Amino acid sequence: MNFLSTISQKIKHNKLFFLSFSILCLSCQERQKEFTIIEKDNMIWIPSGSYTRGSVHSMARADEKPIHEVTISGFWMNKTEVTNAQFKEFVDATGYITTAERAPDWEELKQSLPERTPKPHDSLFQPASLTFKPTQSPVDLNQFNQWWHWTPQASWRKPSGAGSSIEDKMNHPVVHISWYDANAYAKWVGKRLPTEAEWEWAAKGGTQDDLYPWGNDSVDRGEPKTNSWDGQFPYLNTQRDMFFFTAPVMSYQPNGYGLYDMAGNVWEWCIDWYAYDYYSKLSKQNAVNPQGPEISYDPTMPYVQQRVLRGGSFLCNDTYCSGYRVSARMKSSPDTGLQHTGFRLVKDADESNH
Ligand SMILES: [Ca+2]
Ligand SMILES: [Ca+2]
Question: Do residues 18 and 338 touch, judged by C-beta distance below 8 A?
């Protein structure tokens, strides 16, 4: 189990780092575009097409460059993030125990650490996960352990640890989900995680150059567009969007394809490995259905194998991660589940329909 990355970053490097068949028409008034939305079993048909992946915008980070052409085949995508109610059905049917609910194994953990790393204190070897607590005042935004806390008993059932519950959050996205948990659920339900390229194509909602799933307006302007962090991260949250932690899915307007929360609420796992320079290897070709790099590599975390996350969360704002930009990339080790990490699933075209 690679919960290692959380511990190793927290302990060793102090840089922890950190988802009725009906046809209807939706008019996207802001952008004055119209798409035919095809929905079936709470999934939306995402049509095939080509786009320029990545960004040259001033907010774009190095791993979003260079921009390059990508072509995607059509697929079905969940209209919303997977909810607590949906995940509970899976757990009730299978007895599945999530990564966060299992005690870490030191023998597995140390395989991903530098040699001769001393064993952490026994108190860390109990079921736990990382929960968010705001700071009292401004802090260095590189010091992630100022707001992330290793919390015994925290899991999808208890998002903030002991004493918390999901009783009144069944329509919220499930959180504390590792990449392995997401894949286990996917296998049970007969779907799969999206590729990073599919995710970005879907998030664009039929546009080509917009910064966000809702267009180009700043996240802070006009009606709330997503569940993000309003105010000054990580110490002051005005909750202009009405939510401090997760929001019920479908609380804000969908994108042009009719997908909800492609920006914000919770980060969403993709199937790809993460490599910081992957785009440079695709820049001279039109990549057709790219599946991600064969090997994960991030020079800032050389010992940690990481998978891609997309879309930002309730902790994102423009001064911190701006993860709700359609091109923004994030990554985490596959055994890491945090209070802002969930997923949604896709399904390949079915000959009877598409
Ligand atoms: Ca919020
Ligand atoms: Ca999301």
Answer: yes
Contact indicator for 149, 133 with CB cutoff of 8 Å: yes
Residue 267 CA, ligand 2 centroid: distance in Å: 5
Ligand 2 mean position, distance from CA 341 (Å): 9
Whole-model pTM?
Answer: 0.89
Residue 95: which region, alpha, beta or left (left: phi > 0; alpha: psi -120 to 50)? left
| Sequence spans of domains, the chain | 1-32, 35-353
User: Ligand 1 centre from 158 Cα, in Å?
Assistant: 19
CA 89 to chain centre: 21
CATH fold, domain 35-353, is: paralog of FGE (formylglycine-generating enzyme) (3.90.1580)
- Ligand 2 centre from 58 Cα, in Å? 23
Nearest ligand, CA of residue 203?
Answer: 2
For 282-296, the pLDDT digits (tens) are: 877 789 999 999 999
CB-based contact 79:42 (threshold 8 Å): yes
Q: Which ligand is nearest to the CA of 314?
A: 1
Ligand 2 centre and the CA of 261: distance in Å? 5
